[in-house]
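User: what does the whole thing look like in 3D?
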Amino acid sequence: MSGHPHDHHSDHDPHAPVEEVEGPPSEHVLLEIALRELLIEKGLFAAADVTRQIEIMDATTPEQGARLVAKFWTDPAYRQRALADGKAAAAELGIDMSVAPKLVILENTARLHHVVVCTLCSCYPRAVLGLPPAWYKSPAYRARTVKDSRGVLAEFGTSLPDDVEIRVVDSTADCRYLVVPVRPHGSEGMDEAALAGLVTRDTMIGVTLAREP
Amino acid sequence: MSQSFAVAQRVRVRNDAPKGHCRTPHYLRGREGVIERAYGAFRNPEQLAYGADGLPKRELYWVRFEQGRLWPGYTGTATDTLVAEIYEHWLERAE
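Assistant: Here's the predicted 3D structure for the full assembly of 308 residues, as structure tokens:
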């Protein structure tokens, strides 16, 4: 899966700048290297295990969550199972969440819109959404979303009428959340694969709506 | 201290500031809300953080708060809400 990284991100500049900064490594970087090498030396895991875990993390993408949303929209029985147990619903699609916390599916309606934040750290359902964007982890998003959700949504280009309850979901403990957006008008005849294309990472965090087809 | 709560029951988050790791945000301490869902029992993160087994497990609840009551001068609508996962030992009954 990860043998041809350029194939997955055709919009990336093949000559992207090197991200390593010059100068001595930070204390945190040194701490990570020291701890990792010590644990490998003690035989708790091997260097190949670290590489494998990085590959697993890199392979998770928001397309996984988008497939779940598309099936949720089109299959009423699956919708019921997903609302009852998000992890089991993900497993049905071959998404491995065996080591992940509980997954809660949040269904948006014409009257209720969910937006997810983790004010305490940066809890995020990586198995279905991939790695979190930098802004999700920023102190500004975490502090502002809880008290000015409409203002934050507006900055993402999302404005909702006053008769829609905005429900901020602070991911404080043992649950992770995936927002199922309202199925857009004009998507009635579309199949699951096409519907999944209307759903982005940001949609499943709850800061944007599904794309109009 | 352990007690269970029912869905729709009014609760208050304990206004406490213990030392060490916990999963109760400061902005919700002392605030009143309503039990929205019961998530079942989970190992206590306040002990897991220090390498203990986190037992006995603690009941975890989804508590719903009214945004207009959480934030003075809230500019959204009266129906806007916030939900957070709060452990049983951080909750007390409210009238």
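In plain terms: Residues 177 and 189 of chain A are 28 Å apart (CA to CA). Chain A touches chain B through 21 residues (CB under 8 Å).
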